[in-house]
Specification:
2 domains, 60s Ribosomal Protein L30, Chain: A, alpha+beta, 8-stranded antiparallel beta sheet
Length: 235
């Protein structure tokens, strides 16, 4: 048994999100759909396409999703040093430089998207928890890297399906990726289509966080700035 999907989003407004199922729209709610069957095949994958740079750092001080210190020093100062000229455009430029974490007992690698910076506290707020004791490193990427990441996600979804052809695939892409890809955002869907074929029905949405395992059979994790693909086939 596994879980995949994503969080509701309202584009770049960051104000209110709602979900609904057989009733009125609700806030602070979750919708889950269960699939089962002896002939059912499900292939799940999550991939970002971002390239790490610089050494790993230990998170020495944080509070939930607010990163305060890396290796005992102010997190924002170090982040700016790595960004160089791009630091002047924070927090907007932070979308191009998500944080990669090795988190939990299995040290799974997940991505965290930057939401805000606090100059006074020299801290950074991310779209997900950044626990103390975790290892972190900065990542970067170009549009082409993200498209390649989507191709890898589609291929991994197909490989994990253990069936020749998916009937249906749910694509959940981060809203931050949409902002980075801009007018080339359609290339993500085209990349999935190239791998899964014209007979697969595709649907999905842009999210504030993607859910899925990093490896087949693994536990689901929260991700940012990734593409999560869940493919279905039935004998």
């Amino acid at each position: 048994m596994s879980a995949s999907g994503g969080f509701a989003a309202d584009g770049n407004f960051l104000k209110t999100t709602q979900v609904w199922c057989d009733g009125e729209p609700e806030q602070s709610a979750a919708i889950a759909l269960g699939f089962y069957g002896d002939g059912l095949h499900i292939g799940v994958s999550v991939t970002g396409g971002w390239r790490p740079f610089g050494p790993e750092r230990v998170i020495t001080k944080s509070h939930k999703n607010v990163l305060c210190e890396l290796d005992g020093g102010p997190a924002l100062a170090l982040y700016k040093a790595y960004l160089g000229k791009h630091a002047a455009r924070l927090p907007a430029s932070g979308l191009m430089f998500p944080l990669e974490l090795r988190i939990g007992p299995r040290r799974n690698r997940v991505l965290r998207a930057l939401l805000a910076v606090d100059e006074k506290e020299q801290s950074i707020t991310f779209a997900g928890d950044v626990p103390e004791g975790s290892y972190a490193r900065f990542t970067m990427g170009q549009v082409e890297d993200l498209i390649v990441g989507t191709l890898k996600a589609a291929q991994a979804s197909l490989d994990n399906l253990h069936a020749p052809q998916p009937t249906f695939s749910l694509l959940v892409s981060c809203n931050a990726r949409r902002a980075v890809l801009k007018q080339r955002v359609e290339e993500e869907v085209e990349a999935v289509r190239d791998v899964l074929g014209d007979q697969t029905v595709l649907t999905g949405f842009y999210s504030y966080g993607e859910i899925g395992p990093l490896e087949a059979g693994g536990p689901p994790e929260l991700h940012n700035e990734t593409m999560s693909i869940t493919s279905f086939a039935e004998d």
